[in-house]
Write a structure and sequence with these properties.
Helix content is about 45%, strand content about 20%. It contains seven helices and eight strands; from the N terminus they run αααβααββββββααβ. Strands 3-2-7-1-8 form a five-stranded antiparallel beta sheet, covered by helices on one side. A hairpin with a 2-residue loop joins strand 2 and strand 3. Helix 5 crosses helix 6. The N and C termini lie far apart (about 75 Å).
Length: about 240
């Protein structure tokens, strides 16, 4: 029996298509099993740890390259720029600061206050981001040399965010009580807190709902350096 004319060209075409598919599969697999589904958590964690270790090694190597290049540079302008950078590290919050100052503690109202006033808005009984910011701003206004929140150094670009009943600082969530430490002139900082309208509003809720507030003098505070790489954003002109 003779093949029809249609089969005469169809068979080579199917064979060609099959060859293309096999070639594409081999190229994609690159010598590995395409159906491999390794999802063991321990293996994945170990692989990610190895990747992080490799990246840290690259980072250390690059840092050493930068240090070596700095050591080789003799250009006076570059040296002056480096000196200026080092001089500004302190004001920018990159150096630890110690000295006398104030310790401010803010806390949510006790649960019993909500039970005593079932109709009150629960949001009025917790410390919010704007409350913390009110005290921090008043301390900055008084010329505080350094401020920390929950032990983390605050700088000009630090954002304090309220997420639910916690505060997030540099990506780390914290629960109350919130401890603010500020190194500076104690009398000036106390005066600034007393004059702040935002602080006065918080004090009204302290009196009404027993929100926690404590302001204490300290003869020796140790505020750490800012340990996160600052991410600066700035405006760009339109094309």
């Amino acid at each position: 029996m003779k093949l029809t004319r249609g089969w005469g060209w169809a068979v080579p075409a199917v064979a060609a298509i099959g060859g293309i598919l096999f070639a594409a599969s081999a190229f994609t697999a690159d010598g590995t099993d395409l159906r491999s589904t390794t999802t063991d958590p321990a293996t994945l964690v170990a692989e990610r740890a190895d990747e992080v270790a490799d990246l840290n090694a690259d980072k250390a190597s690059l840092a050493q390259d930068v240090a070596d290049l700095r050591a080789e540079v003799n250009d006076i302008g570059v040296e002056q720029a480096l000196d200026e950078t080092q001089r500004l590290e302190g004001p920018a919050g990159m150096d630890p600061v110690s000295g006398p100052g104030l310790v401010v503690s803010l806390d949510d109202a006790p649960q019993s206050r909500l039970d005593e006033h079932p109709g009150v808005d629960p949001n009025l009984l917790v410390v919010h981001q704007q409350d913390i910011q009110a005290f921090v701003n008043a301390l900055w206004a008084a010329g505080a040399k350094a401020i920390s929140l929950q032990g983390q150094r605050l700088i000009s670009t630090t954002g304090i965010k309220c997420v639910g009943n916690t505060v997030v600082l540099e990506g780390v969530p914290y629960s109350p009580p919130y401890r603010i430490e500020a190194v500076g002139d104690i009398n000036m900082m106390r005066a600034s807190l007393a004059e702040s309208q935002s602080v006065q509003i918080y004090e009204e809720y302290v009196n009404a709902y027993d929100l926690g507030l404590s302001v204490e003098d300290s003869t020796g505070l140790d505020i750490p350096a800012y340990n996160v790489t600052p991410q600066l954003e700035y405006a760009k002109p339109l094309n």
